[in-house]
Structures are given as structure tokens and as C-alpha cells.
């Protein structure tokens, strides 16, 4: 549920920025992250997630201009 609340907040912020004519930049871990999630609080999974994000950022991860599930509008 917490995951969906956060995603809903992200969508709301994106749509608010669209209505205001403002830019929107977001970085997120997409479906390209694959690691086994054994339990609710899994330190190994969390380390793998952090390492994946860190390595993406170190290579110059480009900003997305819309959240997952939306296509950015050209302005």
C-alpha cells in the first residue's frame, strides 16, 4: 500500500506540473532491476537495489520527464 501511495503522489505532482506548464524530472528504478525479494525487510535486496541505482547514476542516468506509466508531453 505504501508503494502505491507514493506512486499516486508522484502522478499527482506530475499532473500538477503539467497544468502549471512547468518541467518535471524524475529518476526511478524501472523493470530492468531484477533481484530476488525473499522477505518484507530483506537487507540483501536493499543492498542490491542501492548498488543498481548507484551504478546507473554513476554512468550518467538521464532524467525521465514523466513517471512510470505516463508519456512525457512535449512543451
Low-pLDDT parts are none
| Count of the separate structural domains | 1
Determine the mean pLDDT.
87
State the secondary-structure class: mainly alpha
How would you spell out the order of helices and strands? HH
- Give a short account of the largest sheet: none
**What is the 3D shape?**
globular
Strand content: under 5%
Distance between the ends: 33 Å
The total count of helices amounts to 2
> Helix content range of the residues, please?
40-55%
What is the number of E strands?
0
Measured on Cα atoms, how large is the radius of gyration? 15 Å
In words, what does this structure look like?
The model has no long low-confidence stretch (mean pLDDT 87). The protein has helices at residues 2-20, 43-58. The protein has one domain. The protein has two helices and no strands. The longest helix is centred in the N-terminal third of the chain and has 19 residues, at 2-20. The protein has 75 residues and is an all-alpha fold.
Which keywords apply here?
single chain; mainly alpha; 2 helices; 47% helix; 0% strand; globular
Secondary structure blueprint with pairings:
Layout: H1 2-20, H2 43-58
In summary, what is this structure?
The protein is an all-alpha fold and about 80 residues long.
Amino acid at each position: 500500500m505504501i508503494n502505491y501511495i507514493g506512486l499516486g503522489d508522484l502522478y499527482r505532482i506530475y499532473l500538477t506540473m503539467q497544468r502549471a506548464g512547468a518541467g518535471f524530472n524524475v529518476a526511478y528504478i524501472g523493470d530492468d532491476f531484477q533481484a530476488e525479494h525473499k522477505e518484507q525487510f530483506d537487507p540483501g535486496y536493499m543492498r542490491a537495489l542501492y548498488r543498481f541505482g548507484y551504478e546507473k547514476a554513476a554512468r550518467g542516468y538521464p532524467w525521465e520527464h514523466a513517471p512510470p506509466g505516463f508519456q512525457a508531453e512535449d512543451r
